[in-house]
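Quick one: structure tokens for this chain, please?
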Amino acid sequence: MRKSFTALLTISVLATGVLLSGCGKSTSGTKQTATIMEQADISSFDSTMITDVGALETVNNTQEGLYRMKNSTTVEPGLATSIVKPTQNGTVYTFKLRKNLKWSNGDALTANDFVFAWRRAVTPETKAADAYRFLPIKNAQAIENGKLAPSKLGIKALNKTTVQVTLAQATPYFKYLCASVPFLPQDQKVVNKYGKAYGTTSDKTVYSGPFVVKKWTTSSSRWDLTKNQSTGIRRTLNLIR
């Protein structure tokens, strides 16, 4: 079943014309509304647990990772300040995050949010469907096999705005992994608060990207995207078609 969501966008977001053909007439002079048909149902907004294509488009517009895809072959900085050149024979990546990053609930978004999310993904008890994507990272294989603690994963926060990742071996496609959904950060306080219910409704999720989701549950036939007032990230709505 094709479901729909409504995007409430400022005129500045629409300036490139990405959504002009789908937008209704402006009523306030500052906002427009577009109703867009989604390709599939959404089962979860927990980026560690997502297995369905229905969530990918919405997550792409509501969450931001270290990198994002500029097009099908090129990555560009997301929450990172630049595209990192690895050191130590291509095995160590040191990412600098933009300053004063915020989650949609106002919590500070720091390097520790990446450490928490990536460790959670490789923890066997989490049963993340895409845990295998982390295998290029040092110790991921042993952790997923239950032979090492998740704290041994090759990722650490050097400070609040610096994430350092060590790979098991040089992996040229690692930059693309950093732009994918399983590698998104997560707010540990919110994940711990909701436990298994995290990501099961729009109100039990926090957002790091340019939009936030409103009025969504796993049984919703429609939901809203509105501008994220907390993160300061400004992008046009990105539609995967």
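The beta strands are 3-10, 31-38, 67-69, 75-77, 92-96, 155-159, 162-166, 211-214, 222-227.
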